[in-house]
Amino acid sequence: MPRNSGSQDRLTDLEEFGADPGSLHAGIYIPQNFPKNGPLVVVLHGSTQSAESYDLGSGWSALADECGIALLYPGQRKSNNPISSFNWFKSGDSRRGAGEPLSIRHMIEQVVDDHEIDPKRVFITGMSSGGAMTSVMLATYPEVFAGGAIIAGLPYRSADNLMEAVVRMKGYGGPSDSKLKELVREASTFDGPWPTISVWHGSSDSTVDNSNADSIVRQWQKVHNVEGPPTHEEKVDGFPRQVWSNTDGREVIEEYIIKGMGHGTPIMADGDEGLGEEDKYMLEVGISSTRHIAQFWGLT
Q1: Number of Cβ within a 10 Å radius of residue 80
Q2: What is the pLDDT of residues 182-231, one digit of tens each?
Q3: Is 0.70 topped by the overall pTM?
Q4: Name one Pfam family in it (predicted).
Q5: Which domains does the chain have, with CATH numbers?
Q6: 173-191 burial, b for 16+ CB within 10 Å, e for fewer?
Q7: How does pLDDT run across 23-69, given as a tens digit for each residue?
Q8: Residue 10, C-beta contacts closer than 8 angstroms, at least 6 positions apart
Q9: Are 254 and 268 in contact (CB under 8 A)?
C-alpha cells in the first residue's frame, strides 16, 4: 500500500496571504512533529496537475511527517491558465514585485509568520511549468530561498511569451550563457549568497527537451562562480549525479539526467525508503527525487 495513501485530503487551505496579485490558490501541510524554527518547502505542481495530486505522487507530505518539514503548495487556477500551468513565460508573471511570483512571496511570508518557520531554511521545488516557475522564484527572490530544485523545467527568462516558450521547450534557441547569467543578476538587487540549485530531467523528455537542464546549470554556474566541468561525479541509485562545489568545498549545484525517463518527476514508491505514487508525470524509475532533494538541502 502506498505510504502516503490518503494524502489527497492532507492539504489545508491558506485562506489569506496578502494582496494575491497573481490570483493563485494555496494549500499547506504542517506535520504534527513540526519543530519551532523548522524548515519550509514550497512545492509547485506541473500543468494539468493540482497541488493534491502532486503531493500524492511526489510523497512530499510523507517525507514531511518523517522529517518535520512544513509544506506550502501554491496552486494555479484554470481562470489564469486553461491547463493549470504557472505562467512563467509572461512578463507580468516573471518579474519581482508583480503577478504570480509576488503571490507566492506573500504566501511564504504568511506561512513563515504563522508557523514560526526558520526564514533561513525556506526551499522551493517544482516540475514542468512548476519547475520553470521555480526558476522564476529563485531569480526574482533569491534572498528568500536557501535552495531550489528544478525538475523538467527551463531557465529563468528563457522565454518572454507563449510562442517562445513552446520553441524553448523543444530545445531551440534561447539566450546565450552570458545573457542567462545577466538575467538572474538583473532580476533583483541581491548579491548573494545565492540559493543552491538541484536540477533533474529525463533524457527522453519529449515535452521539455533536456538541453534545458544543462542551460539551467550554466545559468547558475556563472552566478555561483563555478564554471567548467563538474567538481565530482558519482552514481546514486544507479543514476549519474554531477556536482559543482565552490572554493569553500560546498556543493552548490547538482544535476541528475535520468536515462530513458520521459517528462515528469522521478519517484521510487516501493521499499523502506519509498515515497509517493506512480501516476501520469509521476514516473517510477527507482530513484526518489523528493528524498534526494531533501537530502541535498540537509533536511533528512
Answers
A1: 18
A2: 999 999 999 989 999 999 999 999 999 999 999 999 999 999 999 999 99
A3: yes
A4: Esterase_PHB
A5: 7-296 (3.40.50.1820)
A6: ebbeeeebbbbbeebbebe
A7: 999 999 999 999 999 999 999 999 999 999 999 999 999 999 999 99
A8: 4, 29, 52, 55, 61
A9: no
